[in-house]
Amino acid sequence: MNILIIDDEPYLLEKLVSVLTSEHYTVETADDGKAGLEKIWNDTYDLILLDIMLPGMNGLEILSEIRAAGIITPVLMLTAKGDLEDKVAGLNLGADDYLAKPFSLAELLARVRALIRRGNTGSPVIEAGSIRLNTVSREVTKGGENLTLTTKEFALLEFLLHNRGRAISRFTLAEHVWGDNFDPFSMSNFIDVHMSNLRKKLKSSDQGQIIKTVRGFGYLIERETR
Questions:
Q1: pTM of the model
Q2: Is residue 177 part of a domain?
Q3: Residue 122: left if φ>0, alpha if ψ -120 to 50, beta else—which one?
Q4: 86: which DSSP letter?
Q5: Strand spans (E) along the chain
């Protein structure tokens, strides 16, 4: 898998290259916007990690150009912590996900795996047993019948499905769903409440619960689910 990182922070760039190559990804880098865009024109990547604040040409401009050119490579935007406007602008321009700095490397790898897996399927539909989730129409069905999920329930299910076979921590799930608005002290039970409601909607009499609890850590959807 070939990943391009466009970021102008030397320490972060070095760290990202180290962790991604240790996971057996092939990594290329660019430390300014114009050089990064040139690499995108000249090569094919499975994923692009794109900082917003870049010299020469910012990340939003790069994203706008490549989407206008029909390039559908998954893009993970790297944003300044708490900068909601940049996140919204990136998603509106066609970014697939965003990660606010500073972020944990475990969270980065979870997002990378999810986006690459999504890009490899060639289909917006993710399945687990009788559950089908469409990432484009945002419809979820169970045994062919539509389920009505809240925005937060959908986000929880989608993230777990993209990371099937991997245990995801409660904190990582909370950070993904609530972003910078998540306060681990005042909102510690939010995940449990939303997960309980989601499980009630997913469970059926002929099928056990697809979302497993990993005691003391978080949640998991197994790779092979009947």
A1: 0.58
A2: yes
A3: left
A4: H
A5: 2-6, 26-30, 47-51, 75-80, 97-101, 125-128, 131-134, 140-142, 145-147, 168-169, 211-214, 218-221
Same domain (yes/no): 94, 179: no
The gap between the terminal CA atoms of the chain, to the nearest Å, is: 29
The per-residue pLDDT for range 21-31, each reduced to its tens digit, is 998 899 999 99
Q: What total number of domains does the chain contain?
A: 2
Mean pLDDT, the chain, rounded, equals 83
**pLDDT band of 206, cuts 50, 70, 90:** very low
User: Is the distance from CB of 143 to CB of 152 less than 8 angstroms?
Assistant: no
Domain hosting residue 40, numbered range: 2-119
CA distance 162 to 99: 16
Task: For residue range 98-150, list pLDDT tens digits in order.
Answer: 888 888 888 888 889 888 877 655 566 788 888 888 876 788 998 888 999 98
- 8 A C-beta contact, residue 161 and residue 138: no
User: Do both 145 and 199 map to the same domain?
Assistant: yes
